[in-house]
Amino acid sequence: MRIVTRLIALSRSIQLNRQFREIEKSIADLPLAGRRQLAAIAMREFATAAKCEFPHLYGTPESDQRYQPWGSGTDLGFSRVKSDNPQVKLRGIALWLTVAYHETKESKYGEIQNLHRQLMRTLRVLKESAPPVEANQWFAGQAGQAA
């Protein structure tokens, strides 16, 4: 059974890493104003997900949650990233970052832990690009979650 679980974790890690590379490219292509807007949207998404009973399933329709080992929030967010509409794209990036963060946060698998560290670096870059008032709110919100 451990082998099957390990294979599932490895395949999920490969999928999330592939999507993360695209997300990083999308973020890098954003102008500073776009990154600031993304930081504000991501802050709201994180706050909303933190209120959920299962934050890693945030963005997943309730009917889809029953028998899946993970939610469809990352897939939904990733599909929105490919949109031509800038607002839809930013919301997709924020949703993907939020769900991937919560999904990878307490993993015991090395590949997924590495992805979580990369996500943390990306989130730090976003926080640094946010206006000081919003960055302070974000840090305060994350500190409240850790407590």
Description:
With 147 residues, the protein is mostly helical. It has one domain. Helices cover 74% and strands 0% of the residues. It is built from six helices and no strands. It has helices at residues 2-28, 32-50, 73-81, 86-104, 110-129, 132-146. Helix 2 (32-50) crosses helix 4 (86-104) and helix 2 (32-50) packs parallel to helix 6. The radius of gyration is 15 Å and the shape is globular. The chain starts with a helix and ends with a helix.
Task: Describe the secondary structure blueprint for this structure.
Elements: H1 2-28, H2 32-50, H3 73-81, H4 86-104, H5 110-129, H6 132-146
Helix pairs in contact: 1-4, 1-5, 2-4, 2-5, 2-6, 3-4, 4-5
* General shape: globular
Average pLDDT over all residues? 86
The major sheet is characterized as: none
Secondary-structure element string: HHHHHH
As for the number of domains, it is 1
Number of strands: 0
Q: Specify the structural class.
A: mainly alpha
Helix content bin = over 70%
**Low-confidence parts, pLDDT < 50 over ≥5 residues?**
none
N- and C-termini, Cα separation? 35 Å
Tell me the Rg in angstroms: 15 Å
Beta fraction: under 5%
- Count of separate DSSP helical elements: 6
